[in-house]
Amino acid sequence: DVKVTQSSRYLVKRTGEKVFLECVQDMDHENMFWYRQDPGLGLRLIYFSYDVKMKEKGDIPEGYSVSREKKERFSLILESASTNQTSMYLCASSQVGGGRPYEQYFGPGTRLTVT
Amino acid sequence: QKEVEQNSGPLSVPEGAIASLNCTYSDRGSQSFFWYRQYSGKSPELIMFIYSNGDKEDGRFTAQLNKASQYVSLLIRDSQPSDSATYLCAGFFGGAQKLVFGQGTRLTINP
Q: Which of A14, A41, A45 is CA-nearest to residue A32?
């Protein structure tokens, strides 16, 4: 079974703090993704990575950065947390190959509250 | 901008009936679609994947793709209260392995 884990289920941070969200997958997947999910807005892609040290901006990268130093680990960094970054953050991973899309497997999510 | 649109609902269906969930997309180049189910407080899980025109059946679930009309649907037969969840439609638009998600449709099955 594919397993994607995230470092925290719930997190409360203060405005201006630097926040690290960690994601680890155990299936040797090349692709990893960070989304945020807000009511009425669905899943929005923040960043994704298709290989170690490789990253690409998603639809809403402002205020975020990422790091992928090892294949199994993908970190999302909020450089200076703001209240509008209060959200559910979901990490996902998928394999690649054969010119076809593959299922994304999601972690349990981190509900971040910035006060 | 590639878009996937869903009616956010809520959609209410009596137990045992067919639930029909719809999704439209803006890019004719999209080839493949995923349907995910998300229970409240949980992460999305894959139900169906479809990339060919027509129907694909898996148990009580049928995915339908019509590329000419640019819509994809999910039918749930013999709906059960345990099917109550938000259903997310996602399109693959080629290139990098990214999915574009719709807003999700909240489905409630009434006993």
A: A45
Tokens of A33: 């993704």
Identify the band that residue B67 occupies on the pLDDT scale cut at 50, 70 and 90: confident
Residues of B with CB under 8 A from a CB of A: 6, 8, 32, 34, 42-46, 49, 51, 88, 90, 92, 96-99, 101-104
Residue type, A37: Q
Contact indicator for A15, A112 with CB cutoff of 8 Å: no
Structure tokens that stand for A70 in this block = 């090892």
- Beta-carbon-side half-sphere exposure of residue B57 (alpha carbons within 13 Å): 3
Euclidean distance between CA atoms A45 and A23, whole angstroms = 15
Note the pLDDT tens digit of each residue in A22-67.
999 999 999 999 999 998 888 999 999 998 989 999 999 999 999 9
Q: Which residues of A, range 49-108, sit inside 8 Å of B by Cβ? A: 50, 56, 58, 90, 94, 96, 100-104, 106-108
Q: What is the pLDDT of residues B8-29, one digit of tens each?
A: 889 999 999 999 999 999 876 7
Q: Cα–Cα distance between A99 and A95 in angstroms, integer?
A: 11
Question: Which letter does DSSP use for residue A103 in this model?
Answer: P
Structural contact between residues B99 and A104, judged by C-beta atoms closer than 8 angstroms: yes
